[in-house]
C-alpha cells in the first residue's frame, strides 16, 4: 500500500505541481486569483485532440507531439488574451477579478460542452509500454509525465532566479512599486506570467488526459485541487505550492485506496477549510 | 355561463382524442447533447421517413418533435409537459437515466400521455404494477429492467466464463455508478452471486466524471478474480485504458454501457481489446436478422456511420411498435385508434404468445409493461471486443465468435 501511494502519488503530485505553480505564480506576482485556471487544464487536452485529428493525415507520427506543443502555446495565448482584455483593467479590484474569471470559466465550460458534448476524452499516449516497479505497473506515459513536470518546474526555478526577465518577475512579486521605480515594465511582467501560468496548466491537462481522461466538468475539480494546494503551500508561494502538490497527491491516493475514490475531493475540501482555520498562511506561507 | 363551461371542457378534456389529426406527432425526449440522445433522434427520424414513404400510420404523416432533457430532472419534466400539452404529441419515446425518468413519469401520468421509455430502474414498472390506472401509459420496450441485468451477468460469469470456458472465477470486484439504478441491480445481483458461490471482495461506487481508476484496478488485481463494471453514467473508456496500460492481470466482464457503442474501439485506442460486456437490449450492430441488416444499412446511408448508441435500436423499434399497435386497434374497429387508453390495451397484446418482431428480435411485454427476458426474446447478449469488432459470445444460438483472452492475463 505504501509503495502504491508513493508511486501513484508522485505522478499525480507532479501534475498537480504544474497546475498549482502557475496558479500560485499568478497570485504571487500579479495578486490575481484566477478562477479560470481549471479551464486552461481541460482546454489543453481539447486543443490537442482537435489539432491532432486535423493534422494526423498531413504530419503522420509527428502530428501528436506537434499538436501538444501547439496546444500548450495556444492555451498560453488564451491566458494572455484573458489577462489583457479582462483582468488588466480590473486587477486593482480583487473581488471583480474573481467574479470575472469565474464567469469566463463557466462560459468556456459551456462552450466546450456545446462543441464536444458531455463526453470524457483522452489524448493518445506518446509512449507505449509498462514498467514494473516493486510489483506496481507504471506506464511509460506516467514516467514521462513526472519527468516533464519536474523538468519544467526546474526550468521555471532557474528562469526566475538566473535570467534578467525572471528576476524582473521576482522583483515585481516582492514589491510592485519598487520594481516600477527601477524601470521594470510591470504590465509586461504580468502578461508573461499569465502566459506561463496558462501554458503550465494546459501541459498538466494534456499529461493528465493521457493517463486518465478529461471532460469539461473536470475544470472545476482541478480548480478545487489547485486551491487546496496553494492554500496548503501558502498563497503566492510557488515553492510551497510544489511541495504541497506532492503532499496532496499522496493524500489523494491514500484516501482513494483506504476510503474510495469519491472521498478524495472531499479530502481536498477538508484541507482547504482546516488550513484556513488553523494556519491561514499555509505550511510554508508568507503573511498574506 | 353554461356555454362557457362546455367550451372549456371541450378544450381541456377532449381536444386530443376528438381532433381528426392529419399528422401523427411522436415526441422524442432524451439528453440531446449526448450520443444517447442523438442516436434516439436520428433513429426516430429514420423510422418516420420509412413509415411516411410507405404511406404513414393509417394514412397520416408521422412527424418527430424533439425535446432535450439536458440530463436534468427539472428541464426534463418541463420538456415532457411541453410535448404533452403544447405540442400535443400522440406518444413520447425515449428518456435515459432512471432518476430523471422517475420524475417524468409523474408528468406522464398527469397528462395521460403514452410513453415508450428508456431507463432501466425496476421502480418505473413497479409503479405500473402498484397503481395501474395511473401509470399504465408507461411501457419499456427500449431497455430491459435493471433487475434482469444480474441474470445476464450471472450467466456471463457462471454459465459462460466458468462452466463453458473453464475459468475459475470466485472473487468479484464490482465497480459501479454511484446512481440509483446500480443500487437496484445490486439488490438482486448480490444474493445471486452468493447463491452461485461467488464472493464480492470489492464494491466501489464511482461518481459521474470519475477518471482515475488506478487505485481501484490495483486493489482489484490483488483481491479479485474478475472486475465487474456496472457503468452507464460513468464512461468505461478511462477504466479500460488504464486496465490495458497497467496490464492488470484480471479480466473485465460486466455491464459497461459505453462498450456497446461502435466507436468505443477508437475512443479507447483499441485498449478495450478483451473486455467482455453485456449489450443492453441486444443493441449491437451485428446481423442477427433481416430487419437489423436493413436498419443498419439505412442508418449508415443516412448518417454515414453505425448507430452511435444502443438507444437507436430501441427507439427505432418503439416507433414501429407504436404503428403496429395503432393499426391493430384500427383493424379491431376501435373508433379512435390513436387514443392512449385504447392503445394501452393493444400494446399489452404484444405478449409472450404474440411478440412484436423488431430489429433486436422479439419484443413481448410482461403484465407490468417490462420486456420479457429470455433467449427467445430481446436479451442482453454477452459480447467481447476483439480487433475492432464486437463479437457475440453467448447465447450460443446468436454467437458470432469465440472468447479470446488478452495475452497479459
Number of E strands of chain B = 14
> Biggest sheet of chain A, open or closed, and with what strands and sense?
2 strands, antiparallel
Mean pLDDT metric of chain B: 89
Task: Return the CATH architecture of the largest domain in chain B.
Answer: 3-Layer(aba) Sandwich
Q: Would you tell me the structural class of the helices and strands of chain B? A: alpha/beta
Outline of chain B: globular
CATH superfamily of the largest domain in chain B: Response regulator
CATH class of the largest domain in chain B: Alpha Beta
Element-level helix/strand string of chain A: HHHHEEHHHHHHH
Strand order of the largest sheet of chain B: 7-6-8-9-10-13-14
Helicity of chain B, as a percent range: 40-55%
Structure in words:
The complex is a heterodimer of chains A (288) and B (409). By secondary structure, chain A is mostly helical. The model of chain A has no long low-confidence stretch (mean pLDDT 89). In chain A, 51% of the residues are buried. In chain A, helix 2 crosses helix 9 and helix 6 crosses helix 8. Chain A is built from eleven helices and two strands. In chain A, strands 1-2 form a two-stranded antiparallel ribbon. Helices cover 43% and strands 19% of the residues of chain B. Chain B has a seven-stranded mixed β-sheet, with helices on both faces. About 2% of the residues of chain B have low confidence. Chain B is α/β, with parallel strands linked by helices. The chains are: A mainly alpha (288), B alpha/beta (409). Chains A and B meet through helix 1, strand 2 and helix 10 of A and strand 7, helix 10 and helix 11 of B.
Structure characteristics:
heterodimer, A: mainly alpha, 3% strand, B: 409 residues, alpha/beta, Rossmann fold, seven-stranded mixed beta sheet, 15 helices, 14 strands
Q: Topology, pairings included?
A:
The complex is a heterodimer of chains A (288) and B (409).
Chain A lengths: L1 H29 L6 H23 L3 H25 L6 H23 L13 E4 L2 E4 H23 L1 H11 L1 H6 L4 H26 L6 H16 L4 H21 L5 H15 L10
Antiparallel strand pairs in A: 1-2
Helix pairs in contact in A: 1-5, 1-8, 1-9, 1-10, 2-3, 2-4, 2-8, 2-9, 3-8, 5-6, 5-8, 6-8, 9-10, 9-11, 10-11
Chain B lengths: L1 H12 L1 H4 L4 E8 L4 H19 L7 E8 L4 H14 L4 E5 L2 H14 L3 E4 L3 H9 L1 H4 L2 E2 L9 H16 L6 E7 L2 H16 L3 E8 L7 H10 L2 E6 L5 H9 L5 E6 L7 H4 L8 E4 L10 H14 L7 H21 L8 H9 L7 E3 L2 E3 L17 E6 L2 E6 L15
Parallel strand pairs in B: 1-2, 1-3, 3-4, 4-5, 6-7, 6-8, 8-9, 9-10
Antiparallel strand pairs in B: 10-13, 11-12, 13-14
Helix pairs in contact in B: 3-14, 4-5, 8-9, 14-15
